[in-house]
Design brief:
The chain is α+β, with helices and mostly antiparallel strands and about 475 residues long. Helices cover about 45% and strands about 5% of the residues. It folds into three domains: about 210 residues, no CATH class; about 140 residues, no CATH class; about 70 residues, Arc Repressor Mutant, subunit A, CATH 1.10.10. About 10% of the residues have low confidence.
Length: about 475
């Protein structure tokens, strides 16, 4: 039996301006600049004036304030007055190294391969993770090549192409596990006694090596403590993550990350600027402005339709510029709230002064939604006198010390790292002992917290930190 009824639901509908603003807030500064260029290209009514000597005697474009119309479009000057002191500053940037995949593809291009072999090898390169490892088994790659790339191959050919890739720089790339990665690097190294012993150690005694069973290894390999130390030291010099080691000499395609904010300290006071945020003056093309000004109640249908088109485009521009201004205000207010909250830290960059801070804290200070703060923080950077940092860096949860004061998890991690660095490596501290050491430093932490932070900091368990 069907049952009908009415149900009232309260929903919140975002205005076009709110939707536009949300989209712009998410963009880092370089993408924002491109978005502005796209708007200028897509909206035929608008011009981005680039003054030249020839323009002195020509009719200028007009601002919306100059357009005389009755009620449809309010006077609106399409300009954001937020230029810095220098409208063409030399912006500070820092490089992100070239795409790991692109580097391997460049090396692949130098190999004498058939078109089919090249396609198979290229697919393998695209399957590597960011550390340079191949985490897929060969049979899965064969299936993927067939179904996703329409390339028929077999396990033998995939293995052969993988061996070619494993000859590329950085050495160790294309390995399927840590042991293979390290062995590839030892294979490429000059043959010395420690390299030979390290190769045998990883090939035949990897499990014992991982578990630090040193006496068993020396007995089975027939070597002494000094020889084992030399082999282990050679292994420790190898790179477990070759994917992150592309050198700066590969800089043709380096991206540039530009800080959205710049913080300077002047006479002990923090001065926040957004120098990159300089929107060009956007003006109405005179041709379209005349369509509006010349349209009357007695105009033809075609003229009225043209005027309606112009009004729609001007309305679109109005929302866009208003959204830009709201983005500017939202970013500045959020960054200023972060500076106020972390005032002592930003004066000198001392991590011990970094307070616990979550998105909710800044949302409460600014009055913005937590989702808005999250969008502001994402992919944004600030340049300070002690370095360039993503805004996410300044957020962390906290615990309390023995005085009941809040301390950030970053401060706790730093203290834990110091405890581990200072321990006797012949008798590493267990998690229970690390709890005691942290308590001595004034931090009340549970054993499970120590274990959690060890994992985050990539610190092995005590038995795995033991040294000869």
């Amino acid at each position: 039996m069907l049952k009908q009824g009415l149900e009232l639901k309260q929903t919140q509908k975002l205005s076009p301006l709110q939707i536009q603003t949300i989209k712009l807030i998410e963009l880092p500064i370089q993408e924002l600049e491109q978005r502005i260029k796209d708007e200028l290209e897509d909206n035929p009514v608008l011009d981005d004036p680039q003054p030249t000597e020839k323009e002195d005697d020509e009719p200028k474009d007009v601002s919306l304030d100059e357009i005389n119309e009755d009620d449809s479009i309010p006077g609106y000057r399409l300009r954001v007055n937020n230029y810095g002191k220098d409208e063409k500053p030399q912006y500070n940037t820092f490089s992100v190294k070239e795409s790991f995949t692109q580097s391997l593809m460049d090396q692949l291009g130098f190999r004498n391969l058939t078109k089919h072999e090249y396609a198979v090898a290229a697919f393998i390169i695209g399957s590597l993770d960011e550390d340079g490892y191949l985490r897929r088994d060969i049979e899965s790659l064969v299936d993927d090549l067939a179904f996703r790339a329409n390339i028929e191959t077999d396990a033998e050919e995939v293995e052969r192409m993988l061996r070619i890739i494993q000859e590329f720089e950085p050495v160790g790339v294309g390995a399927r596990n840590l042991r293979e990665c390290l062995l590839l690097q030892l294979k490429a190294a000059r043959r010395t006694p420690e390299v030979e012993n390290a190769t045998i150690l990883l090939t035949d005694h990897f499990q014992d090596f991982s578990n630090r069973h040193f006496q068993k290894i020396m007995s089975r390999m027939g070597i002494g403590e000094e020889e084992l130390k030399a082999a282990m030291n050679r292994i420790l010099k190898l790179n477990p993550s070759p994917g992150g080691q592309i050198d700066d000499s590969y800089n043709d395609q380096a991206q540039q990350i530009v800080p959205d904010f710049v913080l300077n300290i002047e006479d002990g006071e923090m001065k926040l600027t957004m120098p990159r945020f300089s929107i060009p003056e956007i003006r109405v093309n005179r041709k379209y402005a005349s369509i509006l000004s010349e349209t009357t109640s007695s105009s033809s249908r075609e003229q009225k339709e043209a005027a309606t088109f112009v009004k729609q485009k001007l309305d679109s521009a109005k929302w866009f510029l208003e959204a830009l201004k709201q983005r500017q205000n939202t970013l500045r207010s959020t960054m200023q709230a972060i500076l106020d909250y972390q005032h002592d830290y930003f004066l000198d960059g001392d991590e011990s002064n970094l307070r616990p801070m979550v998105l909710k804290d800044i949302a409460e200070k600014t009055g913005f939604d937590i989702s808005t703060i999250s969008r502001v923080v994402n992919s944004k950077y600030i340049e300070t006198h002690f370095g360039i940092y993503p805004l996410k860096y300044f957020f962390s949860e906290g615990l309390k010390n023995e005085e009941g004061e809040d301390v950030s998890t970053r401060e706790l991690k730093k203290a834990l790292r110091e405890c581990v660095d200072a321990e006797d490596k012949h008798k590493p501290l267990t998690d229970d002992q690390l709890v005691m050491e942290m308590n001595k430093r004034g931090y009340k932490v549970a054993r499970r917290t120590i274990a959690k932070y060890r994992d985050v900091l990539d610190i092995p368990k005590a038995r795995l930190r033991k040294e000869l």
